[in-house]
Amino acid sequence: MTLNERLTLDMKAAMKNKEKDRLTVIRRLRSSVKNEEIELRRPLNEDEALSVVVKEYKQQQDSLAEFQQAGREDLVEKVQMEIAILKDYLPAPLSEDELRKMVQEAVEQIGATSKADMKKVMTLLMPQVKGRADGKTVNRLVQESLQ
Prior knowledge:
mainly alpha
């Protein structure tokens, strides 16, 4: 089942179950996917649709941090709920051990020996971990392995 199909089914279920908050998040996500399709003038493939979900997730994470700094507990709770709903559409996150293994394999595959090769390693790794790991964490692990 594609992400678009899943979003449509989940939207219908949220309507039937009168889950207002979930419905709002799903509609916003579908809208973002549709806007991206309009911009590209073609339907999105699964990776591109996942990128839209990741982008929405990161935006909500940023909003959460800002609301926490501002002391807006009412908005913090709302954004945390939205983040929990968005997580349902992201692939299972990689553990740090799995990431270390992937970094090591990428370093060996490229033959990287110094930090000068970091860009090559990151270019290889990021498509593999898309939506499953934070870029900052991957960057840190690559730096550690190249020291």
